[in-house]
């Protein structure tokens, strides 16, 4: 028998999947040097390429969001905690990048996504309770 789906499963799944895809594309762009900010933005960190930030983006946003989307698709109880974690990591990513690349409207959009993932994760936990916990 399949456990009941966690609350907000489809919404969390779609938002997480789209965010993971966008972060993966952004990571590839940073790793290949395509459509990147100037490398001079990284000089305070002692970096001379966007490779490490590209790997950081993949690890801190693309992978957690892909995992959250997978958990949503699988109707896992752990989707809520994963959404909270993915949203928090996305928020950290945004806060870390602002001092180096400045403010951008995309950061505002992604900030809304981060807050939404955290909120939906908490709502899913609250509405799902423990009845479908493994």
Tell me what you see in this structure.
There is one protein chain. The chain has 134 residues and is mostly helical. It has a domain at 9-22 and 59-128. It contains 4 helices and no strands. Helix 1 runs antiparallel to helix 2, helix 1 packs antiparallel against helix 4 (105-128) and helix 2 packs antiparallel against helix 3 (79-101). The model has no long low-confidence stretch (mean pLDDT 90).
Task: Calculate the mean pLDDT score and round it.
Answer: 90
User: Beta-sheet strand percentage?
Assistant: under 5%
Order of helices and strands: HHHH
What portion of residues is helical?
over 70%
> Whole-number radius of gyration?
16 Å
Instruction: Tell me the major beta sheet.
Output: none
Number of helices: 4
Transmembrane segments: 50-73, 80-100, 106-125
Keywords: Membrane, Transmembrane, Transmembrane helix
Question: Can I get a quick summary?
Answer:
The protein has 134 residues and is mainly alpha-helical.
List the helices and strands and how they pair.
Elements: H1 9-32, H2 51-73, H3 79-101, H4 105-128
Helix pairs in contact: 1-2, 1-4, 2-3, 3-4
